[in-house]
Each structure stands twice: as structure tokens, then as C-alpha cells.
Amino acid sequence: MIGLTKSLGKELATSGVTCNAIAPAAVRTAIFDQMTQEHIDFMQSKIPMGRFGTVDEIASMACWLASDEASFTTGFCFDQSGGRATA
Fold first, then answer.
1. Is the pLDDT confidence value at 87 over 90?
2. CATH code for the domain of 39
3. 65-84: pLDDT as tens digits
4. CA dist., res. 68 & res. 18, Å (int)
5. Range of the domain at 6
6. How far is the C-alpha of 79 from the C-alpha of 85, rounded, in Å?
7. Model-level pTM?
8. Whole-angstrom Cα distance, residue 22 to residue 53?
9. Total of domains in the chain
10. What is the 3-state secondary structure (H, E, C) of the chain?
């Protein structure tokens, strides 16, 4: 997906269409109800910020990318992993 995002970002750069991606880590949703606490704790231990993302945090990024404020941003993958990608 990252390669496709970068490729489309470059290919569409002069068209007025932007292409970006969001790469979230685990986000607390209802699916957590189906997991054991042990599994949840293990997943959380891999996130340097020590917490899961929220649906609102991911939605805020998507809204910003869809706004005019992001009109000069294309071909980028936004990491929303609480620092997990740094490990």
C-alpha cells in the first residue's frame, strides 16, 4: 500500500488529486471484546506510547487529509502507531 500510495501521489501530483495513506496500529474497538486480556496486554506492550489509538484519532487524520489544509500533501503514509514503527 505504501508503494501504491507513493506511486499514485507522484502520478497524480499535477491533477489536483492527492493520494495518502493512514497506517494505524491497534485501535480500541468492539473487537477487543473477543480477545483475551493476555492478548490485549501483549499488543499494548508493543506500543511505545503504552496505549492504543482511538477511533477519533484515526478519524481526525482522515478528515485532515480530506481537507484543503492538506492540499500540498501527497504520496505519504501517515503512521499512527503510537511509535510502534520506531521499534
1. no
2. 3.40.50.720
3. 999 999 999 999 999 999 98
4. 11
5. 2-86
6. 7
7. 0.85
8. 13
9. 1
10. CHHHHHHHHHHCCCCCCCCCEEEECCECCHHHHHCCHHHHHHHHHCCCCCCCECHHHHHHHHHHHCCHHHCCCCCCEEEECCCHHHC
